């Protein structure tokens, strides 16, 4: 569902690795030309417009749907699929408000379908290794986590449109926040955050950068998600009492 950048560079090509238990059966898009080209490329039997979405979900041809739409549409189309009894794998972020997320969960429970968010970092080897190190106690009690995630964005990109759920928090901040939650296996009890923009036209609808400081006694979490340089850095450490111990991970993101 949705044939934008992420669907074309990641989701559709990945189906070749799922042939043992899955079959790509249908594509849905509001762009008729794109729909025709990609349906032919991937030899898909059903190609539907947004207006045909509900009929497709109830056709009996579909077991599950991957939602790769703009953030603001995640809840609506996930709920419509759930109401038709179709399992849902939805791109991150889950939705743009907590109220929408709760509605998605209720719809899934009501029809007893599976609802999952396509957040791959829970399964990435480097992250799993970091979690194992923390759990092992090798660095002592972790108390401070710092994360920085940034990239460049062109004017007009979907990430810069407020009406489609753009902005730093939904696009990048969730990685920093989830990394902290996942490593500490805890939720923050209090938080302070701010966002800003530098006056550039491309950021006229959204924040250019956001920062947050969150804490959960006795654990201290620090999360940052500015949108300036193409980089991802994450650290987890305990305070420098005696010999400080540190896990540091750095990588670039396209």
Number of strands: 11
Strand residue percentage:
15-25%
> What is the N-to-C succession of helices and strands?
HEHEHEHEHEHEHEEEEE
Structural class: alpha/beta
Average per-residue pLDDT, rounded, comes to: 86
Query: Termini separation (Å)?
Result: 23 Å
Net shape: globular
Can you tell me about this structure?
By secondary structure, the protein is of the alpha/beta class. It is built from seven helices and eleven strands. Helix 4 runs parallel beside helix 5 and helix 6 runs parallel beside helix 7. The two termini are about 25 Å apart.
List keywords for this structure.
11 strands; 254 residues; three-stranded parallel sheet; three-stranded antiparallel sheet; 7 helices; alpha/beta
Describe the SSE topology:
Layout (H helix, E strand, L loop, with lengths): L4 H10 L11 E3 L3 H10 L4 E3 L4 H5 L6 E4 L6 H10 L3 E5 L6 H14 L3 E4 L6 H12 L7 E7 L17 H17 L5 E7 L12 E8 L2 E8 L4 E7 L8 E6 L3
Parallel strand pairs: 1-2, 3-4, 4-5
Antiparallel strand pairs: 6-10, 7-8, 8-9, 10-11
């Amino acid at each position: 569902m949705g044939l934008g950048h992420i669907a074309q560079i990641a989701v559709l090509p990945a189906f070749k690795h799922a042939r043992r238990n899955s079959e790509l059966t249908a594509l849905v898009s509001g762009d008729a030309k794109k729909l025709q080209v990609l349906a032919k490329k991937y030899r898909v039997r059903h190609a539907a417009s947004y207006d045909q979405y509900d009929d497709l979900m109830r056709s009996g041809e579909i077991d599950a749907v991957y939602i790769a739409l703009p953030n603001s549409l995640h809840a609506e189309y996930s709920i419509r699929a759930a109401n038709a009894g179709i399992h849902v794998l939805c791109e991150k972020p889950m939705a743009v408000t907590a109220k929408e997320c709760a509605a998605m969960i209720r719809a899934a429970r009501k029809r007893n379908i599976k609802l999952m968010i396509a957040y791959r970092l829970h399964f990435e080897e480097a992250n799993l290794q970091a979690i194992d190190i923390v759990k092992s106690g090798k660095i002592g009690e972790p108390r401070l986590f710092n994360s920085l995630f940034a990239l460049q964005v062109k004017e007009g990109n979907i990430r810069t449109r407020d009406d489609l759920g753009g902005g730093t928090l939904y696009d990048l901040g969730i990685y920093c926040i989830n990394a902290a939650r996942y490593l500490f296996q805890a939720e923050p009890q209090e938080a302070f955050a701010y966002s800003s923009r530098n006056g550039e036209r491309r950021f006229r609808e959204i924040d250019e950068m956001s920062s947050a400081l969150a804490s959960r006694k006795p654990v201290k979490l620090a999360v940052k998600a500015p949108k300036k340089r193409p980089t991802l850095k994450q650290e987890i450490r305990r305070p420098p009492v005696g010999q400080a111990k540190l896990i540091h991970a750095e990588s670039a993101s396209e």
